[in-house]
Input
Amino acid sequence: MRKALITGVTGQDGSYLAELLLEKGYKVYGVRRRTSTPNYENVERIKDEIEWISGDLSDLSSLIEAVNRSQADEVYNLAAQSFVEASWPQPLFTGNATAIGVTNMLEAVRIAKPDARFYQASSSEMFGKVVETPQRETTPFYPRSPYGVAKVYGHWITVNYRESFNMFACSGILFNHESPRRGLEFVTRKVTNAVARIKLGLQKELRMGNLDSKRDWGFAGDYVKAMWLMLQQEQPDDYVISTGEMHTVRELLEIAFSYVGLNYEDYVVIDPKFFRPAEVDLLLGDCSKAKQKLGWEQDVSFVNLIHMMVDADMERNKGEMKYSESVLVV
Ligand code: NDP
Ligand code: GDR
Output
C-alpha cells in the first residue's frame, strides 16, 4: 500500500487530494496544526480514514516526526498562509509559514525519508506584475505581495533541493482554483455565498474591491489530479496548471448573480477597504507542458464552477436558516 503525507489537509486542496489518494488505495497521513477549535469541515466525510499527525510548518521537529512516522512515499506540502490580502498585515507570519515552512518540510524529508517524492504548492501569484502573457514555466517572476514573495522563495528552495540533493521534488505552479470548499474570504466564494444569502433575504449588499482584476479560475477537484500526476513521472519537474481562460471579477459577479435571476449592479458596493496595496492585474496560464507531459485536462468550466458554488451555498444557507428557525421554536 502506497503512503502519502499531506500538510494543509484540512484546507480546500488538501481535502480534495486526500479523497483522490484514498480512492486510489493510498494510506493517507495528514499533518494538522493545533487550534483552539479544530475545523474538520472539509474532511468531515473522510476524517476517520486519515491518520492524523500533529505538526506545524514552523516546527521542524514535528515535521521530522511526521515524515518518520508515516514513512511516506509521497509528501504533498500544501500548508501555507494562503490569503494574499492577509500577507500585508502579517508579512512575517506569512514568510515563516509560506517560505521558511517549505525549507522545514524539505529538511524533514531530506533527514527522515530522502527518497520520498515531494510536491510543493507554488502559485501563479509568483508572476505578479506579469512580464509576458500567457504565463508559462519559463516566465520570470515579479511577485506583488508578501505572499507572492514567500511563494517565490518556496519555489526556488524546492528547485534547489532537487538540484543539490537529487531529491524527487516538484513544484506545481497552480493558477487560482476554487470550489464549494474555498475559504469565505476569497473572491469567488465571497461572491457565491453573498449571492445565496441575498437571494434568501439574509443579506442586503455585497462590498467588493477591484472588479477589473482578471484571473484564470479552475476547479480545485481537477487541479489536485495534476499534483498526483507530477509525482508519478520518471523525472521531477515543474508545471503550470491553469485553464487558459481569463475572466474579470465583474464577469464573475454577472455569472453568479444572473444564475439566481438577480442583477449584480443592484447589490454591489465598491469599498476601498478591499483594494490591495499592490494589485496583480491579470493572470492567464499556458499549461501546454502539463497537457503534453502529464496528459492533464480540466473537466469543469468556469461557468459550471460558479454555478456549482452558488448551488452549494444556497443549500448550506438554507440548512442554517432551518437550524436557526428550529432553535427559535425550541
Ligand atoms: P487553504 O487556505 O484552504 O488551506 C491551507 C492549509 O494550510 C490549511 O489546512 C491550514 O490549516 C494549513 N496551515 C496553515 N498554516 C499552517 C502551519 N503553520 N502549519 C501547518 N498547517 C498550516 O489553501 P488551499 O487549499 O486553497 O491551497 C493549498 C496550497 O496551495 C497553499 O499552499 C496555497 O498557498 C497554494 N495555492 C493555492 C491556490 C488556490 O487557488 N487555491 C493556487 C496556487 C497555490 P488550518 O485548517 O488549521 O487553517
Ligand atoms: P488571489 O485570490 O489573491 O488571486 O489568490 P482572491 O480570490 O483573494 O482575489 C482575486 C482577485 O479578486 C480581487 N477582489 C477581491 N478579492 C477578495 N478576496 N475580496 C474582495 O472583496 C475582492 N474584490 C476584488 C482581488 O483584488 C484579486 O485581484 C488566490 C489564493 O488562493 C492564493 O493562495 C493563490 O496562490 C492564488 O489565488 C493563485
In short: The chain has a mean pLDDT of 97.
